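Working notes for the structural subgroup meeting. M.R. asked for a predicted model of this chain before we commit to crystallization trials. I am recording the input and output together here so anyone reviewing the notebook later can reproduce the run.

Input as submitted:
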Amino acid sequence: MIGYVTLGTKDLARAAEFYDAIAKDLGTERMMENEKFIAWGTPGGGAGIGLTYPHNGAPATVGNGVMVALAAKDKAQVDRLYALALSLGGTCEGPPGERGGGFYAAYFRDRDGNKLNAFVMAH
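Returned structure, recorded in token form:
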């Protein structure tokens, strides 16, 4: 149902370093970009993620209650994405761990303060 998610940024080049590394670990890369926007994903694959300067010219802000969840292939990738995010200047919102019902996740914010998580469900 979701085709892509877009998050705002105050510094596209700085934010792109963060998302290039996360996307690489997830096995994807940039699929579209211009001077105001970059999108990561795989054409025909799952939902992509984009970063943009807000169209209205106002500063980018973080949505309260907004989060983008990144599907990992296993717990090791959840752990790796969390560590990678923090090493790239992200901040912790909840370290990797079981959250109940076979849901394993880690929560973090990107360099602009946008909230993300990496997760895997037990099969």
